[in-house]
Amino acid sequence: LYQRIDHIGIAVRSVTDALQVYRDGLSLTLEGIEIVEDQGARVALLTVGQSRIELLEATRQDSPIGRFISKRGEGLHHICFQVTSIVEEIARLKAAGLRMIDEVPRCGAEGRLVAFVHPSTTAGVLIELSQVSAEPTNPKK
Ligand code: ZN
Asked: For residue 7, how far is its CA from the centre of ligand 1 (angstroms)?
């Protein structure tokens, strides 16, 4: 079940510079900044009503965001849907023929479980699935 668009991810060279636009220019509220070691990213979340904007800066050149920026420059990176059960959703998408980057959920920002769907099967858009609580399902290690 898809509950809402949780956030839209934007790849940026510098979170500090991008905050001057999104926080100071657009006047969005900054929720916080954290390092997601697993993804090699420094992440800033800004609130927009029920959704958020996620600014992503690479902490290393060879991280997914680092590679994205060196190939295409800054810009829209992914759309994240909040789902009730990420494990069920992965199974459902695989059965529907979509190509998963993550067949098992991993830890994303804010301690959430996340999984990415490959853009080759989603009209060129990288899609992130996100589940708020880890309780209802047990991700495999
Ligand atoms: Zn995201």
From this structure: 6
Q: How far is the centre of ligand 1, averaged over its atoms, from the C-alpha of 55 (Å)?
A: 9
**111-138 per-position pLDDT tens digit:** 899 999 999 999 999 999 999 975 544 4
Sheet holding 41-48, edge to edge: 29-36, 41-48, 51-58, 2-11, 75-83, 127-131, 113-117, 106-107
Q: In 10 A of CB 51, how many CB atoms? A: 15
Query: Ligand 1 centroid vs 10 CA: distance in angstroms?
Result: 9
Provide the CA 58 distance to its chain's centre, in angstroms.
13
